Amino acid sequence: MNIDGSWNVGRRVAGFGAIIRDSDGLFVVALSGSFGDVSSPLLSKAMAVRVANAAAHHLAKVGLSLMQNCEWVGSPPSIVTYLLRNVCSSMLRDG
Known about the structure:
This is Aspartic proteinase-like protein 2. The chain has 95 residues and is of the alpha+beta class. Helix content is 42%, strand content 27%. It has helices at residues 41-63, 78-94; strands at 2-8, 13-21, 27-36. It has a three-stranded antiparallel β-sheet. Helix 1 (41-63) packs antiparallel against helix 2 (78-94). It is elongated, with a radius of gyration of 15 Å. The mean pLDDT is 79.
């Protein structure tokens, strides 16, 4: 997984991006977005990690109710797409 954040000092805006690849380095899923009123480049990096980890945390909660382990290869299952979309929307809304 690659996660990064960027910061525009003049606009006080942080951007974030995350790319997840499989064991062969092939694309699985990506996300990108921005936050307003960010005061430092370090905070932009922390927010990028928070977004990526929030989706993983929700997926881990789903795992608590599974009777067996699940693995997805090739394209993400709808639960991952749903989680990423909701996490991004929530983070953008709540800042």
